[in-house]
Structures are given as structure tokens and as C-alpha cells.
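Project outcomes to date are best conveyed with an example. Our students and postdoctoral researchers have been running inverse folding experiments weekly, and each run begins with a structure described purely in C-alpha cells. The record below, which covers 188 residues, was selected by the lab manager from last quarter's runs and is presented without edits.
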């Protein structure tokens, strides 16, 4: 399936060329490659040559309709907490650990996720290969009880959310819900 998506992506790029605009979303990073399928859209950050490694893996996130993939060094800007102000998220490695820092635009409050502190079942994000901005209104969550996967459920996303992934392994989504950031697990 991934090879078919990859081949379709190459054909679309060859047939349509490249674009620097996003007519449906206000995305604040420099982007220059748009890949479109009939219903799925992925925007890939490409700030310099060969920025994205293993492009085939990047296109595996077609479960999202509105997804923007970024390099880990890129800042992601969106209204994560739903207060009407633009917030910023950065991925950082500090000493032996790593995490995400979200700075709220209205208050300048910084929320650190990871960096050795518990966040759901995680305490660091050293495993992350790439991340992105999800603007879908719904996603799925893998439900695990006693270390066993028992199924999945749909989760409403009230605001733009942050996707974190490891190629070929999965990851999850960080979203602001009920006054705090929470982890939506998406790996079996």
C-alpha cells in the first residue's frame, strides 16, 4: 500500500508541479511541496534540499485529511489551546532527554512536555523522527488495558494538534482538551 501511495505521489508531483500556497489553511512555516490525492492532503516542509529523509514513510499518515509535516527543527504555529491567539511549538533535545515546548501566544506561558517529566506513559521524545500539525476535527486513539490492545475509539479534536511520529513505528497526537494537553496514543 505504501508503494502505491508513493508512486501516486510521484505521479501527482510530476503532473501538477509545485506550489507555495495553501488556500485552505493558514500554515506559518515555509513549505513548498503539496501532495494531493482526491480526498487527502499532505503538506511537506522542505526548507532545503534533502530535508525530509525517507519520504515514503512521511506519506504514510494519510489517515489525516489536513496534515502538515515538519522537520524537528521547525517551529509549528497554530492556536493549540483555542483562545484565538497563535501559539508556537518547538521540539528540543536537552542533555539526555527531549520534549516539546509550547508557548501560548496570549500569555507567553511555556508548557514543557517531556524532558524527563511524565506525560501519559511518556517522559521523553528522543524516539521522534518527524512531527506535524493536524487540523482535522477527529482522529482515533488506540485503547490499551493491562498492556493489551483492546481496540480503538474516535476522539474529537477541538483545536489544531501536534502529530509526533517515528517512521515505521507510529506515535500519537498531542492535543489541548479540557484545559490541558493530553496524549492520544496511535501505535499498536
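After processing, the design step wrote out the following sequence:
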Amino acid at each position: 500500500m505504501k508503494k502505491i501511495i508513493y508512486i501516486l505521489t510521484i505521479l501527482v508531483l510530476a503532473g501538477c508541479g509545485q506550489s507555495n500556497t495553501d488556500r485552505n489553511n493558514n500554515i506559518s512555516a515555509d513549505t513548498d511541496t503539496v501532495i494531493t490525492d482526491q480526498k487527502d492532503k499532505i503538506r511537506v516542509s522542505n526548507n532545503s534540499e534533502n530535508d525530509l529523509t525517507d519520504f515514503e514513510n512521511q506519506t504514510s499518515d494519510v489517515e489525516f485529511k489536513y496534515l502538515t509535516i515538519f522537520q524537528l527543527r521547525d517551529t509549528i504555529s497554530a492556536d493549540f489551546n483555542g483562545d484565538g491567539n497563535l501559539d508556537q511549538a518547538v521540539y528540543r533535545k536537552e542533555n539526555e532527554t527531549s520534549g516539546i515546548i509550547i508557548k501560548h501566544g496570549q500569555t507567553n506561558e511555556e508548557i514543557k512536555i517531556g524532558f524527563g517529566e511524565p506525560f501519559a506513559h511518556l517522559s521523553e521524545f528522543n524516539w521522534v523522527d518527524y512531527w506535524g500539525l493536524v487540523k482535522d476535527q477527529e482522529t482515533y486513539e488506540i485503547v490499551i488495558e493491562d498492556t493489551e490492545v483492546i481496540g480503538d475509539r474516535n476522539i474529537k479534536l477541538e483545536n489544531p494538534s501536534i502529530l509526533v511520529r517515528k517512521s515505521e513505528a507510529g506515535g500519537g497526537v498531542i492535543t489541548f482538551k479540557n484545559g490541558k494537553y493530553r496524549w492520544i496514543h496511535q501505535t499498536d
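The chain has two helices and 13 strands. The radius of gyration is 16 Å. The training component of this project remains on track.
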